[in-house]
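Illustration 12: Phosphonate ABC transporter substrate-binding protein.
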Amino acid sequence: MKSLVLALTVSTAMVLPAFAQDGIKEFNIGVMGGENAQDRMTANACLQKYAEEALGVPVKLFTPADYDGVIQGLLGGTLDAASLGASSYAKIYLTDPEAVDPVLVKANLDGSTTYHSIGFARTYSGITSLADMKGKSFGFGDPNSTSGYLIPLVEIPAEGYSMKPGEYFGEIKFTGGHEQTIIAVQNGDVAAGVTWADAQGDWADGYNSGALRKAADAGIVDMNQIVEIWKSKPIPEGPFVVRKALPDDVKTKFTALLAELGEKDKECLYGVASGETAGFKPVTHEAYNTIIDVRKAELAAQ
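Figure caption equivalent — predicted structure in token form:
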């Protein structure tokens, strides 16, 4: 017991200089919903380890049940960083423009920084497009999800299909996240659902990156048993943000860690970025002006 106490004392003493240097005692990373909490923890455990090495302080991962848990954590200052969807970033910015700084965005293998909202159904359902969805239930992940709700809410009505429950689709259901939507479709709880993907690579793999790729890799879904029925226009990838009030050197160190993650550990990057990507590259607030305008219009219409 004495040796354990001594070891802990030495370990704490080694960390204390970093506390003084960086002005923080811990660093908290929020991990958005989309898959179950344990899988999110597992995929980001390597980032937690590398962040502790880079910052010299304890790093914790938080996996709230819904998107708003991360949003409120960043607004309230209990979270220091998180990977957000564009719609979630827009909500934070519209609530408090001084809360976070967008620093990096995931790049696809071709260098682009967009992705798509993907509508899908079971192969044997006979549903091949939105035209087959009249009177049928439609699953969406979370009200704060860009691809899982905001973009379909805008683009699907523009194609002539009302998103008001009962007017065209039978029922609009919120499943709680992207993985939950995939499972709901597979189990027949909803006739079709919407999730996200880069829409690059092969459908049989779940594309290169996104919720379908993660689910296919995990054995949650057999891509041969689901079919794409709708695809949105390109959507700006959401940013990795850091809390604006953090010391500049903390923000610099964490941003550098993420930017170099692919060179340091490709397997770690695969988990953090939800599939095959070209890593993270710099991004600024201006990349999200359009999404902010869409979110503002949605709020005004409520």
